TrEMBL record:
The active site is at 93 (proton donor/acceptor), 157 (schiff-base intermediate with acetaldehyde), 186 (proton donor/acceptor). Its EC number is 4.1.2.4. GO terms for biological process: 2-deoxyribose 1-phosphate catabolic process; carbohydrate catabolic process; deoxyribonucleotide catabolic process. It is an enzyme of class 4 (lyase). Keywords: Cytoplasm, Lyase, Schiff base. The lineage of its organism: Bacteria, Bacillati, Bacillota, Clostridia, Peptostreptococcales. Pathway: Carbohydrate degradation; 2-deoxy-D-ribose 1-phosphate degradation; D-glyceraldehyde 3-phosphate and acetaldehyde from 2-deoxy-alpha-D-ribose 1-phosphate: step 2/2. This is Deoxyribose-phosphate aldolase. Belongs to the DeoC/FbaB aldolase family. DeoC type 1 subfamily. GO terms for molecular function: deoxyribose-phosphate aldolase activity. The keyword Nuclease does not apply. InterPro entries: Aldolase_TIM (IPR013785), DeoC (IPR011343), DeoC/FbaB/LacD_aldolase (IPR002915), DeoC_typeI (IPR028581). It comes from Aminicella lysinilytica. It catalyses: 2-deoxy-D-ribose 5-phosphate = D-glyceraldehyde 3-phosphate + acetaldehyde.
């Protein structure tokens, strides 16, 4: 395995637990500053605090939307994204309508992505769409990637980290084949060490979402 230079700059340092306190978010931001991670990724209620903590820092603020199920109205996702951007989010990680995807209602899936994309781009932010690959067949992953490209999203993302599985090398390779150079890929879920992160980057991931970010960059055991 080749060495990944500056792997810290691939990482969205993530804290999405329901019991995360303001002090936990401050600690997350302090760690992100120390290790110069690409961003922190937080729930929408914590965006304003994270943005304040990271002011005058190169570290970005990412926010999840429609998380973790994706099973909310498109208008609610768009509103949450707009509000998060207004409070300081630079990037939005939106969960796809997984049920519509499984049902083959591709029009609904595309509309969901495109509507949120329009709102995000009006705010000069970045949009990632979480597919939750562990719940999809290979054919569904490919189709979801094609719809994401059609919706002109910036990234497709493997997982929420809250379902039955996380990122795999096989899924990232499949996603890369599906999107080519038309879209970037974020791998997330179950990434606890450098070797796993590096393998996913080699497979085609442009970004890594992890809560074990410090372990990834230092080699220390994940907490």
């Amino acid at each position: 395995m080749k060495e990944i230079k500056n792997i810290n700059r691939y990482i969205d340092h993530t804290l999405l637990k329901a019991d995360a306190t303001p002090d936990d978010i401050k600690k997350l931001c302090d760690e992100a500053r120390k290790y110069n991670f690409y961003s922190v990724c937080v729930n929408s209620c914590n965006v304003e605090l994270a943005a304040a903590q990271l002011e005058n820092s190169p570290v970005k603020v990412a926010c999840v939307v429609g998380f973790p199920l994706g099973a909310v109205e498109t208008s609610a996702k768009a509103y949450e994204a707009d509000t998060a951007c207004a409070k300081g989010a630079d990037e939005i990680d939106m969960v796809m309508n997984i049920g519509a995807m499984k049902a083959g209602d591709y029009e609904a899936v595309l509309d969901d992505m495109a509507t949120v994309a329009s709102m995000v781009y009006d705010n000069d932010a970045i949009l990632k769409v979480i597919l939750e690959t562990c719940l999809l067949s290979d054919a569904e992953i490919v189709k979801a990637c094609k719809l994401a490209v059609e919706a002109q999203v910036d990234f497709v993302k493997t997982s929420t980290g809250f379902s039955t599985g996380g990122a795999t090398v096989a899924d990232v390779r499949l996603m890369r084949q599906a999107v080519g150079d038309q879209c970037k890929i974020k791998a997330s879920g179950g990434i606890h060490d450098y070797a796993t992160a590096a393998a996913l980057i080699e497979a085609g991931a442009d970004r890594i979402g992890a809560s074990a970010s410090i372990a990834i960059v230092t080699g220390a055991p994940a907490k």
